[in-house]
Every structure is written in structure tokens, then in C-alpha cells.
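Reopening this one. Same input as before:
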Amino acid sequence: MPHVSKPGAVERQRLEDGLQAIRSLLESRGFAYSAGSEAESSGGPFATSMFRRGPLEIGFIVRNGGALASGEGLERSASSRLVRGSSSP
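Same output, byte for byte:
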């Protein structure tokens, strides 16, 4: 029987990988990390997380493996490039 991953597991890994670039910065400024949901909705699989300091909350979400559908197929989203610090697709 082939291994079937939990909905949102791929998105969770991509989200965690992307947050490595800013996690220590936010935590050093008093933000606490919290993993959010992993699931599938009408928009496809997703994973969420957030950093919170008092009433301020910064949330992140990765949907569909971090790719967007387009006429040319699947492309990485601009937000994925931003988190990774790259300007190229």
C-alpha cells in the first residue's frame, strides 16, 4: 500500500522551511511561535502558523504545496520567494 501523507503535511514542511529565515528574529523580539492547522479545504491542502506577542499576531499560510495554478502550469508563489529572500522564480 503506498504511503499517503496527511493533508497539509507537505505545506507544513514548506512553511517551517520558509520560516527558518525569520524565526530567530521574531523570537528574539519576544514573539512566541505557535503551529496552526494542517488540513484540506475547498482551496486545497494548507498549513498555518503564527507568532504572537501580546495582542499582536503575525500569521502565515502555505496552500497547495506553495505553488499557484496558472495558464503555464504550477509556479512558485511570490510569497514563497519573499520568505526565502529570492527575487527569481
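So the earlier flakiness isn't reproducible anymore. For the record, The beta strands are 32-41, 44-53, 56-63, 67-70, 73-76.
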